[in-house]
Amino acid sequence: xxxxxxxxxxxxxxxxxxPIHPMLIPFPIASLIGALVTDIAFRVTxxxxxxxxxxxxxxAGIVTGAVTAIPGMLPPSTGCAASQALGSMPAAxxxxxxxxxxx
Length: 103
Prior knowledge:
The protein is mainly alpha-helical. The protein has helices at 20-24, 26-45, 48-73, 80-85, 91-94, and strands at 4-5, 8-9, 14-15, 18-19. It is built from five helices and four strands.
């Protein structure tokens, strides 16, 4: 089981106790913002180079977004009761966890 530390609950997907999901989030965000910027550049200049760059940035954003989602969907290593108690945990993450019995 994971332990509590000053940053919250330990992640099950971690490298040297550093969670993977927050490390990967900037890549799809940067790729998709870059695609928006290159789309605008294509619209302004009508240069096909910007359309090609935008295509590759969109592809990179989709792929890195899918890769980033995998460790983001893993529950924390403390188990179901703790994951349901977390306010920042997405609601869909706590659905598969069985409720503790009151008996």
